[in-house]
Amino acid sequence: MNLSDNITTLKGIGEKSAALFHKLNIYTLEDLIRHYPRDYEEYASPVGIRFAERDCIQSLRVTIKKVESIKRVRNLQILNVLAGDSENSIVLTWFNMPYLKNKLRSGEHMIIRGIPFLKNGRLTMEQPELFTEKEYEGKQGQLLPKYALTKGLTSNAIMKAVRQVLDSKVLEKEFLPANIRKEYELAEYNYAVSTIHFPNCMDDLVFARKRLVFDEFFLFILSLRYLKETTEKIKNDFTFSKQNITLNLLEQLPFKLTNAQLRAFEDVKENMNSEYVMNRLIQGDVGSGKTIVAALALCLASENGYQGAMMAPTEVLARQHYEYFVELKEKYQLPIHPILLTGSMTAKEKRTVRERIELGMADIIIGTHTLFQESVIYKNLALVITDEQHRFGVRQREMLMEKGTCPHVLVMSATPIPRTLAIIIYGDLDISVIDELPSNRIPIKNCVVDTSYREKAYQFITKEVYGGHQVYVICPMVEESENMEAENVIDYAKMLQTKLPSDITISYLHGKMKAKEKNDIMERFAANEIQVLVSTTVIEVGVNVPNATVMMVENAECFGLAQLHQLRGRVGRGGNQSYCIFVNGSSKKDTKKRLDILNKSNDGFFISSEDLKLRGPGDLFGFRQSGILEFKIGDIFTDAAILQNASDAASIFSDKEIMKKAEYSELNKKLELYLQNDLNSLSL
Ligand code: ADP
Ligand code: MG
Q1: Which of 561, 581, 601 is the last residue of a domain?
Q2: What phi and psi, each to the nearest 5 degrees, are found at residue 215?
Q3: Can you give the pTM of this predicted structure?
Q4: Domain harbouring 132, CATH code
């Protein structure tokens, strides 16, 4: 067995289940063992019913009181069982498991494990796991891995596959130098990998995880260093001597740029005129006005006879930017030629666009990742901007270099991270921070409410719509299946139709829709033909409809705070008072406390630091859904100390010659692989 082998070499994985693994980007055995658990389940000590916390997984010690006869409802066979202890009772319900009826006897003591909730005023648990005391003892204290899944593939199936690989003992060579491992107290690599999947206890898990997090940060930082060396040397052959048109545009804008925006634009101009090509990050909270800075830079490129390209993570966002440029061009009679290139265009349309790019008939080119496909040839590309985007990848850079262009690069991000971390994470980039919101902003009014507030919220939404405004409603993601997520959104939109007056147009948006449909919906929303948009988080990044004043987030407890802050950033973008309603569907105290942070502040930096304070060591894996700055396993906030260690350790290699020493050959190999495969897939 070899780690580069195909997963079909494992017992029990044929073509069919391999296809499911592929959906999770698992092709080889190595991919498989690097599919780390996203969480662990613990079989905690069982408690009596009166200690049961509602709406989260609990193990309860009960006695079976009464086994009812099986009921049939449509095609369901329902078994209800009454269980209890000396003081309290709970209804247990199983669907389509009629054989359990004969296994359960009144008077028997059992441990049940599941999520207790109130149904018709009674404590209920559906589909609980069932154990005898003895069976449960065997499980207690164990940490079982929970993996990111896809429909048709269970955690159990992944667990079995991982076990096979680990049992076969194909070992990887240790690549970290011994002195580094010793200094930062890091586990051996193979031990760390097997322990992250099957830890014996929390302490082992923490130790194993530390090693893998360290690796991830360390390789990342080393590769940045490598990038910086390669990019810094690139001479700037472009001349940006003209700026009248751009400055004129700046004068005519309906608003004055904030000082922070002006500073960022000055930084950009200075870089573009300097000796080496630009590599700059503009960091600014949602709504701080990054787009206009990008627009000015692109205008400057155009004015000087060059092309500039701007890449967005989604078609919706790309189209929005494109339309913004068309509007600028018309409104201010600018001599610019914007063009849009996206994946959903027909082959014929794409061909025409590519031709115009190659001939230089278009000079501001907006699109998705399609912008850097091989078939696109630029006439004279001088500037590349990525908005809310994955780090401008090494591959993309190389691809451009092969075509003979080394443009200036500008990266825009709303990720709220402290400057010290930013310097490590974006070590290859210069940083401009836009730390000031436009002065016309009225702070958003927030509220965190429970589900009983919904009816009132709908009345409020109606009022806002009748006042001429628009509304987003976000449905939570459904973890295991995108199809269910779509259903969820569609159902919610239907339900809302019955709650709101019929002259309000409601529509919906979800990840499963075709790009063209999504664009169409967003365009109609932007034109106020749709007043209420029910959506998944696909609208999370960058969307700008200033007329929208209400953001209602269902099941806000399911989201990370940073993500909620991003969502909130979709409103409050115009001069109108805007509102954010976070509906908390959980009765847990911690959740309320966490959401209240959003209530208190509209500042992204403050929120992420408070979020951090609330996370205890037990939350190692609990908050990994923030959707920003996601490493595979490391979390720059909770693992800030390890990040610092990795940064210190990497400084040993500040001289590239050192890396050539024989003792670092394994590390060198690993780094090469990392640069080729991993760096591009990080969403930073
Ligand atoms: P983000 O930084 O989140 O990308 P945008 O660039 O989309 O924010 O800007 C949000 C809104 O603020 C847009 O409607 C934009 O036109 C407006 N805006 C940008 N700069 C200013 C400013 N200095 N004064 C007033 N409004 C501004
Ligand atoms: Mg933006």
Answers
A1: 601
A2: -50, -50
A3: 0.74
A4: 2.40.50.140
Do residues 357 and 454 share a domain?
A: no
For the chain, helix (H) and strand (E) counts, in that order, are 24, 23
pLDDT in tens, 596-636: 888 888 888 788 777 766 665 444 444 444 445 667 888 77
Mutation probe of ligand 1 site: the residue of 573, 578, 628 with most atoms within 8 A of C-beta:
573
pLDDT for position 406: 86
Same domain, 429 and 503: no
Whole-number percent of the chain with pLDDT over 70? 92
Residue closest by Cα to atom 26 of ligand 1? 438
Name the domain boundary from 139, 158, 187: 139
Residue 143 has pLDDT above 50, yes or no: yes
Write down the H helix ranges in 77-154. Answer: 100-103, 133-139
Contact yes or no for 417/604 (Cβ under 8 A) = no
Nearest protein Cα to ligand 1, atom 5: 289
What is the 3-class SS of 618-668, one letter each residue? HHCCCCCCCCCCECCCCCCCCCHHHHHHHHHHHHHHHCHHHHCCHHHHHHH
Is it the case that residue 508 has pLDDT exceeding 80?
yes
The pLDDT tens digits for 558-595 are: 887 878 888 898 999 888 999 999 999 887 777 888 88
Ligand 1 binding pocket includes 604 (Cβ within 6 Å): no
- Rounded CA-CA distance 138/125 in Å is 23
pLDDT at 180 over 70: yes
Q: How far is the CA of 287 from the centre of ligand 2 (A)?
A: 7
Beta strands 71-73 and 116-119 are unpaired
- Asked whether 296 lines ligand 1 (CB < 6 A), one says no
Between CA 353 and CA 368 the distance in angstroms is 14
DSSP characters for 224-263? HHHHHHHHHT-B--------HHHHHHHHHSSSPPPHHHHH
Q: Is the CB of 576 under 6 A from ligand 1?
A: no
Question: Do 430 and 453 fall within a single domain?
Answer: no
